[in-house]
Records
---
Amino acid sequence: MTITVIGLDGGPLPPAAAEALAGAEVIAGGRRHLAIAPAGAEQIVLGPVEPALGKLAGRRAVVLASGDPGFFGIVRLLREHGHEPVVLPAVSSVQAMFARLGRSWDDVAVVSAHGRDLRRAVNVCRARAATAVLTGPGAGPAEIGAALHGWPRTLVVAEQLGAAGERLTTVDASAAGRDWDPLSVVLCLRAPAFGPLAVPPRGWCAGGEPLPPAGGWALPDDAFEHRGGMVTKAEVRAVVLARLAPRPGTLVWDVGAGSGSVGVECARLGSAVLAVERRPDDTARIAANAAAHDVEVRVVEGVAPGALVGLPTPDAVFVGGGGLDVLAAAAAAGAERVVVSLAALDRIGQARTLLVEAGYEVDGVQLAASRFAPLPGGAVRLAATNPITILWGTR
């Protein structure tokens, strides 16, 4: 027999849902959901879901869930176990939150931290101007706020949506360390321009502009303000980006960032980015370059490796400046990928050995690119750029 999944949002049940519920032999759901179950049907309180599924097969069964059960909900799990449920959805918690705010949400990235790695959700919050997070025990507003230390963010916390205790609270991320309902929905907003009542730019793709960005990547060198040619060249940047693999849900460190060209490009590809640079004039350039490309790069002014202490754990690290001590600190940070560019030949063997000893599988390439340069009369010649060796380590 078919399992019927009914979504609940605090409103009255539609006729089809009420009929399925009245005729059910067995009804499964959370304790708060089972309060609407009629007498006479067997009730199963869902904790771990898999043990309950065997009691549903071959019976007139109803599963009660919050909101839209096809949106980060139980429908996927049922289909993974071979069921073909009839789904009667209600308004999802994300829909309900934005309806309460009276804000459109087609610009908002939606991620789930419920039973999942919180780091990935937080990295999207670090990278995006507006992110909605479905939370869970141990991955709630307090934990999200703590992880966003250093990123200016406003949180709108929606608790018990559709219930008598419904509450929406707007709080600075740094002040979110309190007790919240364990199944809250959190709207994380880049402060202050993207506040709860902001009118987002008109778009065409839900969640904001799709990736990769318009204009591609490995942008021309003159797309970045830099100090006298101190910018990672486009040809080098193309290989570095390929090896860093920036994408939504990841955090990239750009160490010895200079102009920040690598970090800005990683941010354009969806990563959260931390740029570490010792020169105040270059830190200002990084911020200007990020703003010019409409992305956010958190800039840490300081001298590596000391400046790396206490930073959030990265998924990938690019070392564009500094000595072997900086590379050693980057390799010890726990990243899945470490990429380093080297102009000095005598450092190549040392850097490779260092990465191998840190547990990475190491590969590399030397790039020697020649670019078109003008000649009199409109002709062109090939002008060589300085050779650069790129090493990358992967775990």
---
Amino acid sequence: MTKKKTFALRLDAAVLAAVERWAADEFRSTNGQLEWIIYKALKDVKRYKKELDSTEET
């Protein structure tokens, strides 16, 4: 399992509300949605390459 690191994140209230609505629409937690957004952005600009483990699902 991937080790996760905790940190504080400050967001504008309107931005957080928009992320919360988006997460609810996709049946994700707010944290899960933020992780997905960051992962997708990094992948799109080729800053993150991850070999998928055979036990991991996308």
---
Amino acid sequence: MLVYEREIKALKKAFNESDDIIFREILSGEKRVTVIFADGMIDMRDADMGVCTPVIRASGEFDPDLKSLAGVIQTVQKLDEVSARKKFVESVARGAMGVVIDGAEKYFTVAVHGYPTRSITEPPTSSVVKGPREGFTEDFKSNMVMLRRRFGSGKLVFKPMVLGRYTKTQIRIAYVDGITDMKIVEDIFETLSKIDIDGVVDSSYISSFLEKRAYSVFKQVGASEKPDIVASKLLDGRAAIIVDGSPMVLTLPFVLVEDFHDSEDYYRRPIRTGMIRLMRLLGIFFAVLLPAVFVALTSLQYQILPLELMITVLNSTSGIPFSPVLEMLIALIFFEVLGEASVRMPRYFGMAISVVGGIILGETAVQAGILSSLTVLITAMSSIGLFAIPDEVGAFSVIRIALVFVGATLGIYGIVLSVAALIAYVSSMERYGVAYLTPFAPPVKREMGDAVLKRAVKDTEFRSARINKNKRRLQYEE
């Protein structure tokens, strides 16, 4: 049995006498009851009308146990009993209302959460013309609801866990029972269970723990702000990780081809989608290789250019005080800084900075004879192509600069060898038994066409063989 006065004093000490933790004692007949909550984190109307008022009106005619208290409290919210003081404190800190009754053997919590959250809007990173416009928020319960609405079979499962010694961040591992390979779910749960960290503020905190090669330039964990995209990946056999406080939901296993697909690809006509995907591949090809090839040709192998083009290049670069490689690096770094500045500034200032920096400063640099017009043109084309795959901008930016050094020292042959080595490196990556270059390496002929182009939904009968080995069929015969 809890000693009432001692427990209240111990609980106040556990909360370090924090100003926002409210202790309110009410009387139910001659029985003393203290409700404890974090100011601003509960629904005050539900707490007052559903908990406090019924307890007062009961005039103490109830036993201090869960079954009897459940008959008094008039709310549909979840009512729990807690034995450990530490767990009780954690529940109150997360937004539950705590109830301490004189003479009870345990603590009680009521889930009358009511803290402010951001409204559901279209995510800025995944805007669409067609398709759902709702996006995840920082509240993990809202995110769970948005996923639950898309599954009416009851097969969607949320596996709970808590991470962070101080933050006690709520995490849910979502998967579809009967579709997702349970080995993947168990591997994720085991990996996360081994994390011992002070706090998890965002889903990116746990990404590196889930990656096999944490220092690789390529990301190995998928992330999305759109419930419809995450739902489709769950139906493919993947698992999702929802982190309280983060609008980015992680998905595993992740393959590189996912980032070459856009959220609107699911809702466009197949021919249009296929054409756009080819344009993205072409954009990345120009973004990564064009600066390196230009430096290699102007530094070492300009003689392989057609005569008219060689004359144009030589005329454009003559009189520039820097070597081709240094000139290209200056231009690339300038555009990188410009892009970073436009992102960090407020939206309208960022647009102005992009226009002023990209057009006026670039033209001024050419007229001053610091940079050649061809260098500015190629850098601009490369930077535009880079943003054809926004989620891989970081990786391809690093590769682009590295290839510029290779082109300046080893020429075209060095670029070809470097690209071959890069492909070999990416082909060797795998996680949860799924190759990073699926379905190209190892090749899965049935899935290659849909990875680059797009197969109509009515013709998509099977899930990926590499991701889902248990339940392949998507559509069923009559």
